Amino acid sequence: MFCALEASGRVLLENELALCIADADPVTPGRSLVIPRRHGADGLALHQPEWSAVVELPHLIVHKWTSTC
Fold first, then answer.
1. What tens-digit pLDDT sequence spans the chain (69 residues)?
2. Which of 17, 24, 34, 67 is the most exposed place for a label (fewest CB within 10 A)?
3. What's the pTM?
4. Number of domains forming the structure of the chain
């Protein structure tokens, strides 16, 4: 399911191990989702570099929003 998101035009930011997409039905304006690229049963299956990549994207998106205002 998440593999098709890369071609959907909803990708806001990405890095080698994760992507940040715009929520299709946002509860609040600007809501987005950060998803690791590697499929796993749950978050505990992620390796440290993957966690770091996931955590990096929200910081980058906030910086992107605040620098354009």
1. 566 766 778 899 999 999 999 988 889 888 899 999 998 888 899 999 999 999 999 999 888 878 766
2. 67
3. 0.77
4. 1
